[in-house]
Amino acid sequence: MSTIAENIAKVGTRIREAAQACARQPETIGLLAVSKTKPASAVRQAYAAGVHDFGENYLQEALDKQHELSDLPLIWHFIGPIQSNKTRAIAENFDWVHSVDRLKVAQRLSAQRPAHLPALNICLQVNVSQEASKSGCSPEQLPALAAAVKGLPNLQLRGLMAIPEPSDDPAQQSAAFALLRELQESLNLDLDTLSMGMSHDLEAAIAQGATWVRIGTALFGARDYRSESTQETSL
Ligand SMILES: *Cc1c(COP(=O)(O)O)cnc(C)c1O
């Protein structure tokens, strides 16, 4: 078994145990493998071990990888910050976007979604930790943004996404995830998706209702942050 296949098995066990601990069905929690900075060969190994959904943050890197992997039926999720001049390529090449945080970006994605493709699945990213440096709309902005996005023709509003401030304190992790769940419930829009939980806090996220956990490090190992920042600035 490759290391990646072993890691997938371990993460699968963590997901199942976390689901059992809160009496949820493990099948209701999707594993989104975050492959940013990792080569196409790593995605191929993960696919061979049963993963179909992959998350990428940097557009050019994602397009290159998609090209190399076009023989596989992968489902691609864009999870990084979105510059509005990048929306066309995102609308054309992804199945999901988790990081929509303003109406202008949503309007462009809807207008630029090719007619032959199904509606683009959308999560609205919410800043649940009120950190000035993080992207995401504020909880106060969310209801108006959600109502407007719900009305766009070529998007399917699925739910909410958050990247809380990293914390080792389970109570603090849970509070941030619970806030996202409560915000989703209070919208009353029949949403089915909560994209929350990463390598270090997936258990807390699952306990609060996560339907996608976005896992990078625990599957593919630590990232080389020098190349990550190079890719970011080269966009
Ligand atoms: C990088 C990234 C992840 C994965 O984080 P890990 O801690 O490596 O599991 C998840 N979500 C987003 C939005 C990311 O940018």
TrEMBL record:
Q: List the GO molecular function terms.
A: pyridoxal phosphate binding
**Quick check: keyword Transferase in the entry?**
no
What cofactor requirement does the entry state? pyridoxal 5'-phosphate
* Xref: InterPro entries: Ala_racemase_N (IPR001608), PLP-binding_barrel (IPR029066), PyrdxlP_homeostasis (IPR011078)
Report the domain of life of the source organism.
Bacteria
Mention any Pfam family matching this sequence.
Ala_racemase_N
- Where N6-(pyridoxal phosphate)lysine occurs along the chain? K36
Its keywords, alphabetically, are: Pyridoxal phosphate
Record has Transferase as a keyword: no
Biological function: Pyridoxal 5'-phosphate (PLP)-binding protein, which is involved in PLP homeostasis.
Give the NCBIfam families listed for this entry: YggS family pyridoxal phosphate-dependent enzyme
Q: State the name under which the record lists this protein.
A: Pyridoxal phosphate homeostasis protein
Query: Which species is this record about?
Result: Pseudomonas segetis
